[in-house]
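Risk mitigation, structural track. In case the binding assays with iron/sulfur cluster fail to produce interpretable data, a predicted complex structure has been prepared as a fallback.
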Amino acid sequence: MLDKFNRKITYARISLTEKCNLKCKYCMPQNGCKIHINELSDKEVENIVKALLDEGIEKIRFTGGEPLMRKNVLPLLKRICSFAPIDWAITTNGTTLKHDALTLKKAGIKHINISLDTLDDEDYNTLTGGSLKSALDGLESALDAGFETTRINAVLMRGISEKQIESLAKFTLKHNVDVRFIELMPIGGCAKWSKEYLLKADKVLEIMPELKISTQDTNAPAKYYKLPDAKGRVGIITPMSCNFCSDCNRIRITADGKIKPCLHSDIEVNLTDVLHNYDLLRKRIKYAVNIKPERHYLNENQFIMRNMSQIGG
Ligand code: SAM
Ligand code: SF4
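Fallback model:
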């Protein structure tokens, strides 16, 4: 599918649930996040995936909330991954991977992103409400399971990340993983908190000048670097300080059945009335692609209503 700015849309991110077992400060408002939705049924998710595949989507990432908190998610993913041999991927906080990693791999998931912002027990618990040990155990199980790609996503936060950048980046010395530092985005009910903690991605290179530019993935918003003799790469993702909209190849589907053609826009296209009519479903997807905004306006104080947990990152 081509949008009206001639960008080829080949990548879809599907949120499987808004539920989460953590409560990260930049993602879920601490004063409560109303889970307001009618979650798509398994059949409806499957219909959407089939339509996306027929429209030429080549990569699908499952996200959430925490995707692994969805009821019966593992058999659902196994069925979906059998539809076509494309790049099936998942983003997870990793806390249940000790039990789920191998099943996910066997189901057909090829790429896994694990969110891990800090290796400090106390900071992890303050930021997420969860236990660092469960995330680290999960990461270890993911590495053992042998996905094609395993990546760590770390959100950059002023006063918290500076002392973590080196130890997280050094993870790439021993392991064939990409560690990606992501600039905090002020979104939804967490926007005020996020604005206070913004830390520009330049900080990573300032703290680790030994990082040398490595290959650039096409269509990926990350710039990649490497430490000398490292097995993996260090990525830097700069949605705030650098605008990569002109290369954007993705759309998002929320757990309540809306297409978001752009992460940073409140434009949504409802799918719920066409989920059981395949032709209309495909038409609606094409319509959403056609109205994808040219760029985001985050730096011009654009405000996004949904929380990140209601979009999927
Ligand atoms: N629960 C899963 C997880 O944490 O990986 C998947 C959903 S989470 C919304 C997807 C990604 O969005 C995570 O890597 C998380 O760190 C990132 N994220 C959430 N809120 C963010 C924000 N305000 N700015 C930047 N990244 C954010
Ligand atoms: Fe949950 Fe992921 Fe959001 Fe953290 S970032 S609250 S783990 S959805």
